[in-house]
Design goal:
About 20% of the residues lie in helices and about 30% in strands. The protein is an alpha+beta fold. The protein has four domains: about 1-40 and about 180-315, MoaB/Mog-like domain (Molybdenum Cofactor Biosythetic Enzyme, Chain A); about 45-65 and about 155-180, Molybdopterin biosynthesis moea protein, domain 2; about 70-140, Molybdopterin biosynthesis moea protein, domain 3 (Molybdopterin biosynthesis moeA protein, domain 3); about 325-394, Beta Barrel (Beta-clip).
């Protein structure tokens, strides 16, 4: 890691910068360094009704059984199963005490343990005839049948889903602690695609339980950009645009003025002008990701760098790497570069395959159709058709 931490950003003038990078950093190594600067976000108490989609900062244990008492799972007559043994339409059992009608969700009367449907009880006869045999538990949810006592309802690091909220309400839990990473997106106010790249990042961050503030500024002004970077106090900063070699591209220079540039230039396609560093605050170092201004390159940086950072900050429980399926056709890749591949499921001869939509160069029509992605390692030249490939859900 030290080769990244000690790296000095190039401050050469435009005539030198236009010759591109002398050397690119490997994506895997660069990401490892970036993640080492990601701090765990502090936990925050939140009403459960507002917590859906956020990542839990605690393991929540059920305080009592659900349901607390046995309840009916359907409308019908509550009976003791033992009283119905051998009952049928031809040989009914007789009930001296009329069975009590209960609606779905009602608590069962004392000494009953089953529910018979309406047609299984003939109320008009005297004594009342029971026309079917019940077994204990028919149409019933016993105490603790949905959720027992001291059962994990949600573990630390999991994302809260709608059904979690139902369990919390059922057990009387009103507040839960969550981790919400806060990110600031700085975007060039003259960026042709800036009006939708920023909102796209914010929406994708929200699916991870993070919050995002978007700041559109004149990133071609070194002073303004440096002052903005220095003023922001958040968990993560993502600067979009100005990472290349044009005369107005000064993102790396601005970061170098107020912090440190660890990596500028990553061997990934698209997104080779990406990089990262940090700005120091009294609370610690804030990682800063520099993303190119093209939509496909910014999206690749999101997948490869920004998303892992937010998950690290929220301590999100690692999900399975993805689904492994055979390739519908071959993928070619340039050695020495980590190509981003977009994938979509396709059915071939009744079997599901990964269909490669694009590799390295990611046209927008592929972005909107993609279901998963994969990083081709720099030592690989690609994969043949039929090779098993793991695709990570987008």
């Amino acid at each position: 890691m030290s080769e990244f931490r000690d790296a000095k950003p190039s401050m050469a003038g435009p005539s030198v910068a236009r010759r591109s990078f002398d050397q690119l950093s490997a994506l895997g190594d660069a990401r490892q360094v970036l993640l080492s600067y990601c701090r765990l976000t502090k936990s925050t108490p939140m009403p459960v009704d507002e917590a859906m989609g956020y990542v839990t900062a605690e393991t929540v244990i059920s305080p009592g059984p659900v349901p607390a008492e046995a309840i009916a799972l359907r409308d019908g007559f509550a009976v003791a199963a033992l009283d119905t043994v051998g009952a049928s339409a031809y040989a009914p059992a007789f009930a001296l005490t009329p069975p009590q009608w209960v609606s779905c969700g009602n608590q069962l009367p004392q000494s009953t343990d089953a529910i018979l449907p309406a047609h299984a009880v003939r109320e008009t006869s005297q004594p009342i005839e029971i026309l079917a045999q019940a077994t204990p538990g028919d149409g019933v949810r016993f105490s603790g049948g949905d959720l027992g006592t001291r059962i994990v309802m949600i573990a630390e690091g999991e994302t809260i889903k709608p059904l979690h909220l139902a369990l919390f309400r059922a057990t009387g839990i009103a507040t839960i602690h969550v981790r919400i990473p806060h990110a600031a997106i700085i975007i060039r106010n003259d960026l042709p695609q800036g009006d939708f790249i920023g909102p796209a990042f914010r929406t994708m961050a929200k699916t991870l339980g993070a919050s995002v503030e978007i700041l559109a500024i004149d990133m071609s002004d070194l002073k303004i950009l440096a002052q903005t970077l220095a003023a922001i106090d958040t968990d993560l900063i993502i600067a979009i645009g100005g990472t290349g070699f044009g005369e107005s591209d000064c993102t790396a220079s601005a970061l170098a003025q107020v912090g440190s540039v660890l990596v500028h230039g990553i061997a990934m396609h698209p997104g080779e002008t990406a990089g990262f560093g940090f700005v120091s605050k009294s609370s610690g170092s804030i990682p800063v990701i520099m993303a190119p201004g093209r939509l496909e390159a910014a999206f690749a940086v999101w997948l490869a760098l920004a998303k892992p950072c937010l998950c690290e900050m929220a301590a999100t429980t690692p999900k399975a790497r993805g689904e492994t399926l055979p390739l519908a056709r071959k993928i070619t890749s340039n050695p020495g570069v980590s190509d981003i591949v977009l994938l979509r499921r396709a059915s071939i001869d009744g079997k599901t395959h990964w269909e490669p939509l694009a590799s390295g160069d990611l046209p927008w029509h592929a972005l909107v159709r993609a279901e998963a992605w994969h990083i081709v390692p720099p030592e690989s030249e690609g994969y043949p058709a039929g090779a098993l490939l793991c695709g990570e859900e987008i």
